[in-house]
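Budget justification note: compute hours in this period were largely spent on complex prediction jobs such as the one shown. Inputs:
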Amino acid sequence: MTSDGTTKQKRDELLRKREESQQGGGPRRIDAQHKRGKFTARERLGMLLDQDSFEELDPFVLHRSTDFGLEKQKYLGDAVVTGYGTVNGKLVFVYAQDFTVFGGSLSEVVANKICKVMDMAIESGAPVVGLIDSGGARIQEGIDSLGGYGSIFNRNVMASGVVPQISVMLGPAAGGATYSPALTDFIFMVRGLGQMYITGPDVIKAVTAEDVSHEDLGGADAHTRKSGVAHFSEESEEECLEKVRKLLSFLPQNNMENSTTAVNTDNPDRVDEDLNDIIPDNPNEPYDMLNVIHTVVDNNDFLQVHANFAGNILVGFSRMDGNTVGIVAQQPDQFAGVLDIDASVKAARFVRFCDAFNIPIVTFIDVPGFMPGTSQEHAGIIRHGAKLIFAYAEATVPKISVLTRKAYGGAYIVMSSKTLKGDINYSWPTGQIAVMGAEGAVNIIHRSRINDSENPNETRSELVKEYEDNLMNPYAAAGRGLIDDVIEPSQTRRKIIKALRMLANKRESLPPKKHGSIPL
Ligand code: HXC
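Corresponding output:
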């Protein structure tokens, strides 16, 4: 205990510095940030994390640059706020780029701060959430900044499949800076705020003479609807960060944890009679697979991932019996649920995420085949479709499928089939497993009989009926054990839950290898 007040002075100094570190680039720039319609890094962390749970790290870090007069412009903490806190009571590491300091640009020390929390996240086995709002590489720092990106990318790759990584785009991300988010598992974007592009509108104009706005080029719609780079598009920062919290509620903390369990508040034995009538009599009539999913899962709760991209396939998270499951399902309401390039890639990525994080996969199948046409063939549907085969075959988590209607050709094999090591494959009585649809099949195998007949249309109809009666049902597959049982649709929920319980301790390993060579 000192009597001259030194201790008090030191404490006051700490409080003063702490206060200063909370100011980012100062009141004028905070004001400008608000005028842009954006929250500050700290306000955002306040919305993302549980109340009062944030513990900041490195608030006193300063950049070391002396070029371009930077030694006179220093801000405590530099252009990123980092630390840890909780979401829904569970540990999460966070970094939020601070646009009020040099436009959130990445200096060497900003990169070091981000790398520090990423290393801690990997060691502690907890998710990382990055809030992105940055002018990219700190121009004045040159190579030190570029090297910083390399260090972050390296950690993104090391963390992949170990802890969930989420990027939230709340401002610009240009050039190579887009690649850290691109390496993470889920990208959220706020419409009108988040923008991602490799080259901006000015460069595009100079090189190709094309005129495009920042938002049209790399905004939320561009990336959640067209490119598929981003998974979630939200209207406001508040809604976006709330959605991040919801996503995290489904995810395990790391790859050593089993899928997350919540208290089951829905009856596992619920029987849903409505499902018995959901399939239209006409096999070409669409229906909404979302109704099936919502009916079967706990409390109708299905968090769609990539909802605006490749709508012919649905992927997302739900709970069954209180445990997280990954849902993959054709959507007959869009392009008859056909598998095209985008659908294959979307589902393959999701299946691999679930497998990496021990999340069982429940697949609902109604697929007329792969999309025909030169544009799909020449864009590589063979290569991209192979990704989905690879993902399902490689996945060792419990795999349960329910065939609701069509499973034709190669698409039957792809979708979690028994020969790709599906654990439990159910079919509804309306299931049809065949090499192709009845019309197409009859036109090929009975061509001469139809052509030679006195009434070709009548003959074709008879042959189609014969084909449908004999082959368009689940019993040939069930007779070979490729379908484990044909179930009443109303029983689907309890059948899946029983299968999930049976598979809870499933152990399957792959042959020793460094890694496979997925056709990228
Ligand atoms: C240093 C930067 C900066 C940067 C912005 N600032 N970007 N400082 N390095 N990269 C500073 C500005 O000087 C300004 O400082 C403050 O941040 C806010 O910027 P404004 O331009 O006033 O804001 P706004 O009008 O909203 O425009 C935002 C912007 C624009 C679109 C991001 O600043 C911009 O185009 N910046 C450069 C983007 C860029 O080309 N970055 C390099 C990308 S390539 P004051 O003092 O006025 O507040 C890259 C390579 C990565 O990142 C490679 C990885 C492998």
